[in-house]
Amino acid sequence: MDGPTEALLLHRVRRAGRVCDVLLAGGRVVAVGDDLRAAATGLDPLGAVEVVDAGGAVLLPGLVDSHVHLTQWAAARRRVDVLAATSAAEAADLLARHAGPGTDLVLGHGYRDALWSGPAHRDVLDVRFPDRPVVVVSADLHAVWVNSPAAARFGVADPTGVLREGPAMELIAAAGDVGEATLDRWVAEATTVAAARGVTGVVDLEFAPIGTWSHRARPDVRIAAGVWPQWLEEAVAAGLRTGDAVPGAPDRVRVGPVKFVVDGSLGTRTAFCHDEYPSGGHGVLRIPLAELEPGLRRATSHGLTAAVHAIGDDAVRVALDGFEATGARGSVEHAQQVHPEDLPRFARLGVLASVQPRHAVDDRDAVARHWPRGAERAYPYAALRAAGAELRLGSDAPVAPLDPWDALASAVHRSLDEREPWRPDQHLPLDVALAAGCGGRRGVHVGDVADLTLVAVDPARAFADGGADALRRTEVLATVLGGEFTHRAGV
């Protein structure tokens, strides 16, 4: 070796039910034993070893959020939150109450109109904001709602002031452009917040070129930066493969999967479904199989995996058909409604089911209204597992909080209020959910990458004693990334 390698000894951690020591060096777990203090200090090649007495804290693999829109989440934390609005008028009232004085653009986030008695319309916003431009992003990121001044500024011709799917995403990006320096600072702060909840990695599926990361500071989590089809040829020309370092970016940023969006969302009533919506239509098929196949072949032939957004059951079938026809590898993102005969195809094709359990909790009433004939196929997590599918958990932040403990709690207990859990037959066992929330890792072992989380109470004990709410309140004492602390509060 050219010089000493920094090492960290986690003394008195609880691993697999018993207290032991865990030695980290060179970014990996190099030893597990009863008391490694003497052995660690005697390892000359390691040089100085920092010894941290964890006092019996529970050691887990680092948590991974497998579906995030990181820039949108960072920005949404600074926008006017209208999630609580139960009508368009109430959303406009919230915006007026919290926007503050001025004439600059008002950005709101989080409207959910799936259960409103009347639709979002620019006239409602105009009552409160006749002269000041207003842009409100839907909670699911698949729609955007503007008033007349904003429609004039951004060229929105639709008389309702509501755009959906591709046009909405383009407008969201334009309205949210506050300059690279500001966005970069917000994203850096967002990764620090994520690390404080035990997160060591995210799959960032932001609608942006991955070169965006070349001018950002080193994040506090590992980033798998997704590639959208708009920038696929750039990635191919640069010879980038999934897992490669992003040129010019910090060392924690790697190339992620190619993101294909087959359909829309339940909240916007654009998920592509077999059964007709009560309001009419079957949703939106954004990428038919004839277009998906060549995209998957192109990505696969150049070493890029795929993340295929598919929410409705017919969209999931299109996604799986695409994987089967091309031999592509990757994931179906969301899989919120699945035909029973398609469940075993995930395992057979080696396709991950990347799911966001908080959506099941938030959408139970929307399912009852908009998927009355497909509710039995909705959010089939236990059925996917029983069929052999490998699951990954995520948040889809900012659609849901970037908090893995919220995702875990929602996976094992589908209720946020006094109502009984919705479809408890589809709950996941805690150990299964925890592995899915740790990127597939089960436990901490010698040779593992040293991405770790220290918590005050074993999740199984917290859930047994206090239920899902106790899981959501999990106290993260420290987060370790590649052997370095990215969060340290209680050890």
As residue ranges, the low-confidence spans are: 1-5
Rounded mean pLDDT is 95
Largest sheet: 8 strands, parallel
**Contiguous helical run count:** 17
Distance between the termini: 31 Å
Find the CATH superfamily of the largest domain. Metal-dependent hydrolases
As a percent range, the share of strand residues is 15-25%
Tell me, what is the CATH class of the largest domain? Alpha Beta
Residues in helix, %: 25-40%
Secondary structure class reads alpha/beta
Tell me the CATH topology of the largest domain. TIM Barrel
Largest sheet: spatial strand order: 6-12-13-14-15-16-17-18
Q: Any idea what the radius of gyration is? A: 23 Å
Q: Which oligomeric state applies?
A: single chain
Which architecture name of the largest domain does CATH use?
Answer: Alpha-Beta Barrel
Describe the structure.
It is a single chain. The chain has three domains: 1-56 and 444-491, Urease, subunit C, domain 1 (Roll); 64-70 and 181-442, TIM Barrel, CATH 3.20.20; 78-175, Roll (Diaminopimelate Epimerase, Chain A, domain 1). The protein contains 17 helices and 21 strands. α11 (343-349) links the parallel β16 and β17 (351-355). Mean pLDDT is 95; it is low at 1-5. With 491 residues, the protein is an alpha/beta fold. The strands form four sheets. Strands 6-12-13-14-15-16-17-18 form an eight-stranded parallel sheet. The chain has a five-stranded mixed sheet with strand order 7-8-9-10-11, with helices on both faces. A four-stranded mixed sheet has the order 3-2-1-4. The radius of gyration is 23 Å and the shape is globular.
